[in-house]
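Sequence design from tokenized structure. All designs in this work follow the same two-part layout: the structure record, then the generated sequence. An example of the structure record is given first.
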């Protein structure tokens, strides 16, 4: 399928009144897409509008917020919904990876947010500065107090470039530094994709006269789409390979393996062998950058065998921490990420443990564990898995069903199973579609081994997923 056919595909999906049945028919052009759609659970349009009362407030303007809005707006007979979202433009954020690879442009991944916010929904174009769940209200940056009966928190997460000593957001795009994540959601710009595509080409030019040292980093915090740092590694390596060029590629991660699930990790190790110059530095966490000298400094935390204990008849384990400096020519940085300060500093966040500061919701019902009229959706949730757009799609029907149950005085029964999906692009034209949940691997199409790189997943991700996102997911149809 050529890229020129993409507008024709989007044309097929562009009807805002597209039914689930019609969508399934259109999915005939992609059996894989049909399987994904069929696995999505009931659409909001299929539910009869519930006769419930109450002011629903949704905070956020990204994928989770809009998916929740679409479903609740359709599922409630006479909805009273307010959304607080500063962004006039909605970005299809997974598309930034394809921007970095030179396959999408900014225009391909941006649409007016008004296209997805019904006219009878009150839209406050601002951000929440503070949450007051004890009094069922929030305060915006402009100082407006907004009361609610039911709250859906969908703020997403934010990047902290300055958490890396010596680095600022302004450094991205200079001195060989790139970051595909860089965007301004409020302004509706995806600069990271554009900067990283230029960075791909700068690396290629340098490789024509030598073998540049290129670093790729992953932070020690949760991030949206945890596989994106490796996607940049493989796509840029393949971009050079197609030209008969190579670089000294180094992937640095605080983790002990390439992926949390061994079959996927093993498959990624195999994929790396296509490129003759990738070295992994496990248990390395980037802590500082000398932007001018082009030196990255890491904390390398590891364990080694100590002295033999004759009483226990085993060797002691000794924890070690080293500072490691790595000079580089180019570096793709992924900064630490966290919920917005308004969530971190509110009563809504976890106050302890590894999820401290993240929204305190039950991992299955997505209901707040202390405020039963509060639900979470998307990246902000402090649960073990689920920081992808695919997870938000699976959160949405759970939030819809459980919020309606609470409005009706019933206990929430819908459960999120931890579904997460990471389309790991191991080269141009192939993807390992890593789908998993709380129990392990959970492929949508059971007869396709999830660890095998496939062209069909590349075609689905590049050509089908974006129109499905705009015309089905954001409209509560899947």
């Amino acid at each position: 399928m050529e890229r020129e056919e993409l507008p024709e595909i989007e044309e097929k999906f562009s009807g805002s009144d597209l039914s689930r049945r019609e969508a399934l028919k259109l999915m005939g052009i992609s059996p894989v897409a049909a399987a994904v759609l069929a696995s999505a659970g009931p659409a909001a349009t299929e539910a009869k509008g519930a006769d419930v009362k109450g002011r629903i407030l949704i905070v956020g303007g990204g994928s989770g917020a809009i998916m929740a809005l679409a479903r609740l707006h359709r599922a409630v007979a006479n909805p009273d919904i307010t959304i607080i979202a500063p962004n006039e433009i909605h970005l299809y954020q997974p598309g930034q990876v394809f921007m970095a690879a030179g396959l999408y442009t900014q225009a391909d991944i941006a649409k007016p947010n008004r296209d997805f916010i019904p006219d009878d929904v009150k839209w406050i174009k601002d951000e929440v500065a503070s949450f007051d769940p004890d009094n069922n209200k929030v305060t915006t940056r402009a100082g407006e107090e907004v009361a609610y009966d039911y709250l859906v928190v969908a703020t997403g997460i934010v990047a902290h470039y300055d958490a890396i000593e010596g680095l600022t957001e302004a450094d991205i795009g200079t001195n060989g530094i790139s970051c595909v994540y860089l965007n301004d959601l409020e302004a509706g710009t995806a600069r990271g994709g554009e900067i990283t595509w230029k960075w791909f080409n700068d690396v290629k030019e340098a490789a024509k006269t030598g073998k540049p040292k290129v670093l790729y980093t992953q932070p020690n915090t949760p991030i949206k789409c945890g596989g994106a740092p490796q996607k940049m590694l493989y796509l840029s390596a393949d971009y050079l390979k197609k030209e008969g060029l190579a670089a000294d590629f180094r992937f640095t991660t605080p983790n002990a393996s390439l992926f949390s699930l061994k079959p996927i990790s093993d498959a990624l190790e195999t994929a790396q062998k296509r490129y003759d110059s990738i070295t992994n530095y496990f248990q390395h966490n980037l802590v500082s950058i000398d932007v001018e000298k082009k030196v990255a400094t890491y904390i390398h935390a590891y364990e080694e065998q100590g002295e033999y204990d004759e009483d226990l008849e085993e060797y002691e384990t000794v924890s070690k921490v080293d500072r490691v400096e790595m000079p580089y020519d180019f570096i793709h940085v992924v900064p630490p990420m966290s919920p917005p300060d308004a969530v971190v500093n509110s009563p809504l966040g976890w106050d302890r443990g590894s999820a401290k500061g993240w929204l305190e919701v039950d991992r299955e019902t997505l209901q707040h564990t202390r405020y039963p009229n509060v639900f979470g959706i998307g990246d902000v949730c402090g649960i073990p898995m689920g920081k992808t757009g695919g997870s938000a799609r699976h959160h949405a029907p759970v939030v819809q069903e459980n919020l309606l149950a609470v409005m009706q005085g019933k206990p929430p029964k819908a459960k999120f199973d931890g579904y997460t999906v990471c389309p790991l692009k191991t080269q141009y034209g192939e993807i390992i579609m890593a789908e998993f949940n709380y129990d392990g691997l959970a492929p949508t199409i059971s007869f396709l081994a999830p660890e095998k790189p496939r062209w069909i997943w590349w075609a689905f991700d590049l050509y089908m997923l974006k129109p499905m996102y705009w015309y089905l997911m954001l409209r509560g149809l899947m």
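The CA atoms of residues 217 and 252 lie 5 Å apart. We note this feature because it recurs in several other targets discussed in the main text.
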